[in-house]
Amino acid sequence: MPPPTDADLRSHRAADLPAHPEDRWFQPARGAGDLVPGGSLLFHYRDRAEPPTRHEPRGGTCIHGHFNGARGIGAWQYYPGVTQHITFLRDPFDRFLSQWFYLNKRKRAGYPEPDLTDDPSFDTWLHRRAEAQAQGRNPYSFIWQMPLPPGTVDPDTLFARHFVFVGIMERYAASLDALATALGKPRLPPPHSNATERDSDFTSWRSAYEKLFPDEYELYEKGRIHNAAAIAG
């Protein structure tokens, strides 16, 4: 795959990476709270309650952050027509568990988590998310972090036409090498893992999750196929 050269290069996440290799591949445009002129790494994050800044994509630029169409800050809402996306996918149930522990950790630390104000059990939380998923309004699902609204195109078409690269967290080291090749960047050693401590084991819920979220698994499995092809070269 040749290195992308036009103004479409962007990066978004469907799964949080252990660290940010793009910080070493691109010049961050934010330093000490100020924009650095000519920076090639721009950010798409909320500033407290304010929506992310809308940037002007240009050649060699990476716009990195949390793109979530269910929250009004999706890729298609900010950068319609952009087709050079990057994402790293993770096994959907493992991602769901990680998210569950992370949100509860934030709540215990005093951060506002409006959807957890009634302290739902894991069972309750799982079925709330499944109901919202079925109704097409689940902002916690990574299907809303894709560059097009869910159901717009099939996953094969989505990955083939709208992505520079699809990484898989379970193949992180090999994916990182393949991404470096795709971008024409130097290879980097895999960074440390950023994991939230877990005080419970919910692995027995995996089969139920797979049945409740088939759309996530369809996307993930197609992503694995595209990732394997990129790794194989």
Task: Give an account of the 3D structure.
Strand 1 and strand 2 form a beta hairpin. This protein has helices spanning 22-25, 75-78, 92-108, 122-134, 155-162, 172-183, 206-212, 214-232; strands at 30-31, 34-35, 41-44, 62-65, 85-89, 163-168. It is an alpha/beta fold and 233 residues long. A two-stranded antiparallel sheet has the order 1-2. The model is unreliable at 1-19 and 31-37 (pLDDT under 50).
Give a quick set of tags describing it:
disordered N terminus; single chain; 233 residues; alpha/beta; two-stranded parallel ribbon
Series of H and E elements: HEEEEHEHHHEHHH
Instruction: Give the beta-strand count.
Output: 6
Protein structure class: alpha/beta
Q: Give the N-to-C terminal Cα separation.
A: 8 Å
Strands in their spatial order, largest beta sheet: 1-2
CA radius of gyration is 18 Å
Cα shape: globular
Overall pLDDT metric: 85
Major sheet summary line: 2 strands, antiparallel
Assembly level: single chain
